[in-house]
What we know:
Number of domains: 1
CATH class: Mainly Beta
CATH superfamily: Electron Transport, Fmn-binding Protein, Chain A
Helix content: 10-25%
Structural class: alpha+beta
Bound molecules: flavin mononucleotide
Shape: globular
Low-confidence stretches: 1-38, 223-243
Largest sheet: 8 strands, antiparallel
Number of strands: 14
Amino acid sequence: MSRKRDPKNERGDGLPLNASESDPDRAPKKFKSALGSGDSDEQSSGLDQFLPYPIHKVNRLLEPGPVLLVATGSFANKTHNIMTMGFHMMIQHEGPTLVGACIGPWDKSHGNLNKTGECVLAVPAVEMLEKVVDIGNCSGEDVDKWETFGVNPVPAPDPDFANGSGDRKGAEEDRARAPLVGGEGIIANIQCVVEDGALVARYNLWVLRVIGAWINKDMDLEYGQEDQTPGDDGGSIGGGKLRKREMNMAHHRGDGRFVVDGQEVDMRDRMVKWKEFQD
Ligand SMILES: Cc1cc2nc3c(=O)[nH]c(=O)nc-3n(C[C@H](O)[C@H](O)[C@H](O)COP(=O)(O)O)c2cc1C
Protein backbone atom coordinates (compact mmCIF):
# COMPACT_ATOMS: atom_id res chain seq x y z
CA MET A 1 0.00 0.00 0.00
CA SER A 2 1.15 3.51 -0.53
CA ARG A 3 1.57 5.13 2.87
CA LYS A 4 2.96 8.43 1.63
CA ARG A 5 0.69 11.35 1.08
CA ASP A 6 1.44 13.40 -2.01
CA PRO A 7 2.39 16.83 -0.64
CA LYS A 8 1.03 18.54 -3.76
CA ASN A 9 -2.26 16.71 -3.49
CA GLU A 10 -1.86 15.41 -6.99
CA ARG A 11 -2.92 11.90 -7.58
CA GLY A 12 -1.32 11.63 -10.97
CA ASP A 13 -4.23 10.06 -12.81
CA GLY A 14 -5.36 13.34 -14.31
CA LEU A 15 -8.67 13.23 -12.45
CA PRO A 16 -9.75 16.24 -10.39
CA LEU A 17 -9.45 15.88 -6.63
CA ASN A 18 -12.63 15.65 -4.65
CA ALA A 19 -12.52 18.55 -2.19
CA SER A 20 -12.68 16.21 0.72
CA GLU A 21 -9.29 14.98 -0.56
CA SER A 22 -7.83 18.32 -1.52
CA ASP A 23 -9.02 20.14 1.56
CA PRO A 24 -10.55 17.56 3.82
CA ASP A 25 -10.67 19.70 6.90
CA ARG A 26 -12.86 22.33 5.36
CA ALA A 27 -15.38 20.05 3.75
CA PRO A 28 -17.30 19.18 6.91
CA LYS A 29 -17.73 22.85 7.81
CA LYS A 30 -19.22 23.56 4.41
CA PHE A 31 -21.69 20.86 5.10
CA LYS A 32 -22.87 22.34 8.32
CA SER A 33 -24.27 25.31 6.44
CA ALA A 34 -25.56 23.15 3.61
CA LEU A 35 -27.40 20.95 6.09
CA GLY A 36 -28.79 24.00 7.76
CA SER A 37 -30.80 24.66 4.61
CA GLY A 38 -33.37 22.15 5.89
CA ASP A 39 -33.95 20.61 2.48
CA SER A 40 -37.01 18.46 3.04
CA ASP A 41 -36.26 16.17 0.05
CA GLU A 42 -32.95 15.39 1.66
CA GLN A 43 -34.60 14.65 4.98
CA SER A 44 -37.12 12.32 3.41
CA SER A 45 -34.44 10.54 1.36
CA GLY A 46 -32.44 9.75 4.49
CA LEU A 47 -29.31 11.58 3.33
CA ASP A 48 -29.62 14.01 6.23
CA GLN A 49 -28.25 11.23 8.48
CA PHE A 50 -24.80 11.59 6.87
CA LEU A 51 -22.01 14.15 6.55
CA PRO A 52 -19.22 14.06 3.99
CA TYR A 53 -16.07 12.31 5.09
CA PRO A 54 -12.56 12.86 3.73
CA ILE A 55 -11.80 10.19 1.14
CA HIS A 56 -8.17 9.82 2.14
CA LYS A 57 -9.32 8.82 5.64
CA VAL A 58 -11.61 5.95 4.66
CA ASN A 59 -8.84 3.60 5.82
CA ARG A 60 -9.93 4.54 9.36
CA LEU A 61 -13.26 2.93 8.54
CA LEU A 62 -11.91 -0.11 6.70
CA GLU A 63 -8.56 -0.89 8.34
CA PRO A 64 -10.41 -2.31 11.38
CA GLY A 65 -11.93 -4.88 9.00
CA PRO A 66 -15.64 -4.51 9.77
CA VAL A 67 -18.28 -6.65 8.13
CA LEU A 68 -19.79 -4.51 5.36
CA LEU A 69 -22.95 -4.16 3.35
CA VAL A 70 -22.51 -3.63 -0.38
CA ALA A 71 -25.13 -1.80 -2.43
CA THR A 72 -25.03 -2.28 -6.20
CA GLY A 73 -27.23 -1.68 -9.23
CA SER A 74 -29.24 1.42 -9.93
CA PHE A 75 -31.71 2.98 -7.53
CA ALA A 76 -33.54 4.87 -10.29
CA ASN A 77 -33.92 1.73 -12.39
CA LYS A 78 -34.98 -0.33 -9.37
CA THR A 79 -32.14 -2.81 -9.93
CA HIS A 80 -30.49 -1.91 -6.63
CA ASN A 81 -29.45 -4.79 -4.42
CA ILE A 82 -27.63 -5.29 -1.14
CA MET A 83 -25.33 -8.02 0.16
CA THR A 84 -23.02 -8.71 3.09
CA MET A 85 -19.24 -8.86 2.66
CA GLY A 86 -16.44 -9.89 4.97
CA PHE A 87 -13.57 -10.20 2.46
CA HIS A 88 -12.18 -6.73 1.79
CA MET A 89 -9.06 -4.65 2.36
CA MET A 90 -7.58 -1.17 2.00
CA ILE A 91 -5.08 -1.08 -0.87
CA GLN A 92 -4.02 2.55 -1.13
CA HIS A 93 -4.66 5.66 1.00
CA GLU A 94 -4.95 8.13 -1.84
CA GLY A 95 -3.77 9.01 -5.29
CA PRO A 96 -6.43 7.46 -5.69
CA THR A 97 -7.88 5.77 -2.62
CA LEU A 98 -8.28 2.06 -3.46
CA VAL A 99 -10.10 -0.81 -1.76
CA GLY A 100 -10.12 -4.51 -2.69
CA ALA A 101 -13.42 -6.42 -2.42
CA CYS A 102 -14.18 -10.11 -3.05
CA ILE A 103 -17.62 -10.49 -4.59
CA GLY A 104 -18.24 -13.81 -6.29
CA PRO A 105 -20.38 -14.81 -9.27
CA TRP A 106 -22.72 -16.69 -6.88
CA ASP A 107 -23.94 -13.25 -5.78
CA LYS A 108 -26.48 -11.30 -7.79
CA SER A 109 -24.39 -8.29 -6.77
CA HIS A 110 -21.54 -9.58 -8.95
CA GLY A 111 -23.71 -9.16 -12.06
CA ASN A 112 -24.79 -5.70 -10.95
CA LEU A 113 -21.19 -4.65 -10.41
CA ASN A 114 -20.24 -5.99 -13.82
CA LYS A 115 -23.05 -4.02 -15.42
CA THR A 116 -22.69 -0.62 -13.71
CA GLY A 117 -19.06 -0.62 -12.56
CA GLU A 118 -19.92 0.93 -9.22
CA CYS A 119 -21.06 0.16 -5.71
CA VAL A 120 -21.43 1.58 -2.24
CA LEU A 121 -19.67 0.00 0.75
CA ALA A 122 -21.64 0.64 3.92
CA VAL A 123 -20.22 0.09 7.41
CA PRO A 124 -22.99 -1.13 9.73
CA ALA A 125 -22.94 -0.71 13.50
CA VAL A 126 -23.38 -3.77 15.69
CA GLU A 127 -27.03 -2.85 16.31
CA MET A 128 -27.69 -3.94 12.72
CA LEU A 129 -25.89 -7.26 12.98
CA GLU A 130 -28.97 -9.51 12.78
CA LYS A 131 -30.06 -7.79 9.58
CA VAL A 132 -26.52 -7.89 8.22
CA VAL A 133 -26.36 -11.65 8.67
CA ASP A 134 -29.83 -12.18 7.21
CA ILE A 135 -28.96 -10.01 4.19
CA GLY A 136 -25.96 -12.27 3.60
CA ASN A 137 -28.08 -15.41 3.82
CA CYS A 138 -30.42 -14.85 0.91
CA SER A 139 -30.20 -13.46 -2.60
CA GLY A 140 -31.68 -10.48 -4.35
CA GLU A 141 -32.59 -13.03 -7.02
CA ASP A 142 -35.30 -14.30 -4.67
CA VAL A 143 -36.26 -11.38 -2.44
CA ASP A 144 -36.23 -7.61 -2.36
CA LYS A 145 -33.84 -7.37 0.54
CA TRP A 146 -34.38 -3.62 1.07
CA GLU A 147 -38.07 -4.26 1.60
CA THR A 148 -37.73 -7.55 3.48
CA PHE A 149 -35.20 -6.26 6.00
CA GLY A 150 -36.49 -2.70 6.21
CA VAL A 151 -33.28 -1.11 4.95
CA ASN A 152 -33.62 2.32 3.39
CA PRO A 153 -31.86 2.99 0.06
CA VAL A 154 -30.75 6.63 -0.12
CA PRO A 155 -30.42 8.07 -3.66
CA ALA A 156 -26.75 8.60 -4.45
CA PRO A 157 -25.59 12.11 -3.62
CA ASP A 158 -23.18 13.83 -5.96
CA PRO A 159 -19.69 13.09 -4.60
CA ASP A 160 -18.55 16.45 -6.01
CA PHE A 161 -20.81 18.29 -3.61
CA ALA A 162 -18.04 18.13 -1.05
CA ASN A 163 -16.07 20.20 -3.53
CA GLY A 164 -18.50 23.06 -3.50
CA SER A 165 -19.50 22.09 -7.04
CA GLY A 166 -22.45 19.87 -7.80
CA ASP A 167 -25.66 19.35 -5.96
CA ARG A 168 -25.95 17.45 -2.67
CA LYS A 169 -28.92 15.60 -4.10
CA GLY A 170 -27.03 14.78 -7.27
CA ALA A 171 -27.97 14.97 -10.90
CA GLU A 172 -30.37 12.40 -12.36
CA GLU A 173 -27.50 10.25 -13.60
CA ASP A 174 -26.00 10.27 -10.09
CA ARG A 175 -29.31 9.26 -8.60
CA ALA A 176 -29.34 6.31 -10.99
CA ARG A 177 -26.28 5.00 -9.21
CA ALA A 178 -26.12 2.47 -6.43
CA PRO A 179 -27.81 4.01 -3.40
CA LEU A 180 -26.23 4.69 -0.05
CA VAL A 181 -27.50 2.49 2.76
CA GLY A 182 -29.60 4.68 5.03
CA GLY A 183 -30.46 4.51 8.67
CA GLU A 184 -29.19 5.38 12.10
CA GLY A 185 -27.42 2.03 12.36
CA ILE A 186 -25.09 2.79 9.45
CA ILE A 187 -21.72 4.25 10.47
CA ALA A 188 -20.57 5.27 7.00
CA ASN A 189 -21.13 4.90 3.27
CA ILE A 190 -18.26 4.77 0.78
CA GLN A 191 -19.08 5.40 -2.89
CA CYS A 192 -16.83 3.42 -5.25
CA VAL A 193 -16.26 2.75 -8.94
CA VAL A 194 -14.44 -0.25 -10.35
CA GLU A 195 -10.85 0.82 -10.98
CA ASP A 196 -9.47 -2.53 -12.12
CA GLY A 197 -11.30 -5.76 -12.92
CA ALA A 198 -8.21 -7.72 -13.98
CA LEU A 199 -8.32 -10.01 -10.92
CA VAL A 200 -12.06 -10.66 -10.97
CA ALA A 201 -12.02 -13.73 -13.23
CA ARG A 202 -9.28 -15.39 -11.20
CA TYR A 203 -9.96 -14.26 -7.62
CA ASN A 204 -13.36 -12.48 -7.63
CA LEU A 205 -11.26 -9.52 -6.48
CA TRP A 206 -12.52 -6.10 -7.53
CA VAL A 207 -10.19 -3.16 -7.13
CA LEU A 208 -12.45 -0.25 -6.26
CA ARG A 209 -11.66 3.48 -6.36
CA VAL A 210 -13.35 5.58 -3.68
CA ILE A 211 -15.12 8.62 -5.13
CA GLY A 212 -17.11 9.80 -2.12
CA ALA A 213 -17.51 9.05 1.56
CA TRP A 214 -20.25 9.88 4.06
CA ILE A 215 -20.21 9.49 7.81
CA ASN A 216 -23.16 9.19 10.17
CA LYS A 217 -23.61 12.63 11.70
CA ASP A 218 -24.16 11.02 15.11
CA MET A 219 -20.82 9.24 14.91
CA ASP A 220 -18.11 10.09 17.36
CA LEU A 221 -15.94 12.04 14.98
CA GLU A 222 -12.49 10.93 15.97
CA TYR A 223 -13.08 9.80 12.43
CA GLY A 224 -11.72 12.88 10.77
CA GLN A 225 -13.64 16.04 11.53
CA GLU A 226 -11.35 17.29 14.17
CA ASP A 227 -13.13 20.50 15.01
CA GLN A 228 -15.55 18.17 16.81
CA THR A 229 -13.55 16.29 19.38
CA PRO A 230 -15.01 13.18 21.03
CA GLY A 231 -17.25 14.13 23.87
CA ASP A 232 -17.74 17.62 22.46
CA ASP A 233 -21.45 17.78 21.92
CA GLY A 234 -21.55 21.52 21.54
CA GLY A 235 -21.59 21.53 17.73
CA SER A 236 -24.68 22.38 15.79
CA ILE A 237 -25.67 20.67 12.57
CA GLY A 238 -28.87 21.27 10.69
CA GLY A 239 -30.10 23.43 13.54
CA GLY A 240 -29.83 20.56 16.00
CA LYS A 241 -27.24 19.61 18.60
CA LEU A 242 -24.71 17.01 17.61
CA ARG A 243 -25.50 13.80 19.44
CA LYS A 244 -22.39 11.75 19.92
CA ARG A 245 -22.99 8.08 20.43
CA GLU A 246 -20.85 5.05 20.42
CA MET A 247 -21.18 3.17 17.15
CA ASN A 248 -19.28 -0.08 17.26
CA MET A 249 -18.29 -2.10 14.23
CA ALA A 250 -18.67 -5.88 14.07
CA HIS A 251 -15.93 -8.14 12.70
CA HIS A 252 -16.75 -11.52 11.20
CA ARG A 253 -14.64 -14.42 12.49
CA GLY A 254 -15.58 -16.41 9.42
CA ASP A 255 -18.10 -18.87 10.82
CA GLY A 256 -21.09 -16.80 11.82
CA ARG A 257 -19.41 -15.56 15.00
CA PHE A 258 -18.41 -11.95 15.35
CA VAL A 259 -16.32 -9.82 17.62
CA VAL A 260 -17.40 -6.28 18.33
CA ASP A 261 -15.25 -3.19 18.76
CA GLY A 262 -14.16 -2.99 22.34
CA GLN A 263 -11.71 -0.99 24.30
CA GLU A 264 -9.56 1.36 22.26
CA VAL A 265 -5.84 1.24 22.88
CA ASP A 266 -4.30 4.55 21.87
CA MET A 267 -0.77 4.04 20.52
CA ARG A 268 -0.63 7.28 18.58
CA ASP A 269 2.42 8.55 20.43
CA ARG A 270 4.39 5.49 19.24
CA MET A 271 3.39 6.06 15.61
CA VAL A 272 6.46 8.23 15.11
CA LYS A 273 6.84 7.40 11.44
CA TRP A 274 3.19 7.96 10.49
CA LYS A 275 2.24 11.26 12.08
CA GLU A 276 0.82 12.40 8.77
CA PHE A 277 -2.11 10.06 9.23
CA GLN A 278 -3.12 11.38 12.62
CA ASP A 279 -4.62 14.73 11.67
C1 LIG B 1 -21.00 -12.53 7.39
C2 LIG B 1 -21.04 -12.76 5.90
C3 LIG B 1 -19.94 -12.41 5.12
C4 LIG B 1 -19.96 -12.62 3.74
N1 LIG B 1 -18.87 -12.26 3.00
C5 LIG B 1 -18.91 -12.39 1.65
C6 LIG B 1 -17.82 -11.95 0.85
O1 LIG B 1 -16.83 -11.42 1.33
N2 LIG B 1 -17.91 -12.12 -0.50
C7 LIG B 1 -19.02 -12.70 -1.09
O2 LIG B 1 -19.06 -12.82 -2.33
N3 LIG B 1 -20.05 -13.12 -0.36
C8 LIG B 1 -20.03 -12.98 0.99
N4 LIG B 1 -21.09 -13.37 1.75
C9 LIG B 1 -22.23 -14.01 1.10
C10 LIG B 1 -23.13 -13.02 0.42
O3 LIG B 1 -23.48 -11.97 1.30
C11 LIG B 1 -24.39 -13.74 -0.03
O4 LIG B 1 -24.03 -14.65 -1.06
C12 LIG B 1 -25.41 -12.73 -0.44
O5 LIG B 1 -26.61 -13.20 0.02
C13 LIG B 1 -25.42 -12.43 -1.92
O6 LIG B 1 -26.52 -11.64 -2.19
P1 LIG B 1 -26.99 -11.31 -3.66
O7 LIG B 1 -27.17 -12.62 -4.39
O8 LIG B 1 -28.29 -10.60 -3.47
O9 LIG B 1 -25.92 -10.48 -4.29
C14 LIG B 1 -21.10 -13.17 3.13
C15 LIG B 1 -22.21 -13.52 3.91
C16 LIG B 1 -22.18 -13.31 5.29
C17 LIG B 1 -23.38 -13.67 6.12
